């Protein structure tokens, strides 16, 4: 008499029937929420007019320019989300002051550079969130996203040598790490842990 084989810990469970439509509605709601947030950040003011405008623009984008299906398989961690928001606010203020100093400094011509940063979690959602967060910081601009390799190409303002490029790469990877810690899945967190940390990467 042979016994049934023991299930492996990582074996996927049975598919849940009937939640496909609910999952798609949830993903659409998450995408709409991010579009509204980005719309208000671009305007620089959160008010009722911008919220309504963001909802209308976001809904139009999702209807007329449907995004590829992106499922959210992670979990929301409030404490890590607060850490991300706090660090992002500090970087936003610091970068704004730096760009303002460049703008008012007489005769100073900053040198820019284009660098590539390969993310450690190459999911569509992580690529989008990291690219949005990096683009919102003054002095950095996303030029291209390579979806196949999970690479961001960005323009960095005011670089003086290879050390500044290393700092820009480390800052981008640190933003990715904080995003994954805030909304990533357990497997994505493990992927960050098994990847060797970059020199100068902030936690």
Question: Could you give a quick summary of the protein structure above?
Answer:
The protein has 203 residues and is mainly alpha-helical.
Topology:
Layout: H1 20-43, H2 48-64, H3 78-104, E1 113-118, H4 124-136, E2 140-146, E3 151-156, H5 162-183, H6 186-194
Antiparallel strand pairs: 1-3, 2-3
Helix pairs in contact: 1-2, 3-5, 4-5
Question: Can you walk through the features of this model?
Answer:
Residues 1-19 and 196-203 have low confidence and may be disordered. Strand 2 and strand 3 form a beta hairpin. The protein has a 3-stranded antiparallel sheet, with helices on one face. Helices cover 55% and strands 9% of the residues. The chain is globular and about 55 Å long. With 203 residues, it is mainly α.
The structural class is mainly alpha
Mean pLDDT: 81
- What profile does the largest beta sheet have? 3 strands, antiparallel
What is the alpha-carbon Rg in Å? 20 Å
The helicity comes to 55-70%
Morphology: globular
- Determine the strand fraction and express it as a percent band: 5-15%
Keywords:
3 strands, disordered C terminus, three-stranded antiparallel beta sheet, disordered N terminus, about 200 residues, single chain, mainly alpha
